[in-house]
Amino acid sequence: MKKDLYIFRHGETDYNLEHRWQGCGLDAVLNENGEEQARKLAEKVLSLGMTVLYCSPLVRAVQTANKIACRSATELPIIILQDLREGDFGEVEGMTFDEVRARFGDTFVENVCWPSFDNWDIHFPGGESKREIFGRVLHCLNRIVCKKDSVIGVVCHAGVLSALKCGLELKKTPNENCSVLHLQYDLETKKFVQIFD
Question: I need a labelling partner for 43 at 20 to 30 A (CA). Which of 71, 91, 120, 145 fits?
């Protein structure tokens, strides 16, 4: 038996618009464009047949989840899980991308964002590594797929998505606001596989 997981990134915030690092320490709300993105995402995913929506506790994710849940034919239950929160980016939270690159260099920043397994533990001072983010999120997803639901929605963050893509060795694609990553979990092999719709 296989289960479908649709993993959504939240809608845009002003921090996204300003190209700032926004981890779990910055609990920003969706801006007007982010609200519209979430509405469009809700329309787009209507036909997926999700029966539950799991969500990060951060406001931007909860707002996005609410848009999806309210638009479904039967209002989806939203279950908040701490382990779906964005990564902790330590000292760089709130800094612009340019400020972070000037301070740490392009190579270091690239290794934090898209690490290979030999630099999986690199992190900003005071922050989490991709290994740490991946570990808690994978543990969380493994608990989710053990539930009865066969089509599952998850609302989270770019750092979570890139940790999953690195850890599951998926194609490294941009994690735009309200983008969708479709994974299928095989209960027999206990493996996640990316589905390209």
Answer: 145
Q: Is the pTM of this model over 0.90?
A: yes
The CA distance from 163 to 167, in Å, is 6
2-194 is classed CATH 3.40.50.1240: yes
From 10, 93, 128, 157, active-site residue: 10
Q: Give yes or no: 139 in active site.
A: no
C-alpha dist (Å) from residue 167 to 132, 137, 145, 172, 186: 11, 10, 17, 11, 17
Q: Of 12, 32, 43, 86, which one is the catalytic site residue?
A: 86
For residue 87 the two structure tokens come to 């990564």
Burial (CB < 10 A; 0-12, 13-18, 19+), residue 159, is: buried
Q: For the chain, give every domain's residue range.
A: 2-194
Q: pLDDT tens-digit profile of 108-126?
A: 999 898 888 788 999 999 9
Q: Is 123 a catalytic residue?
A: no
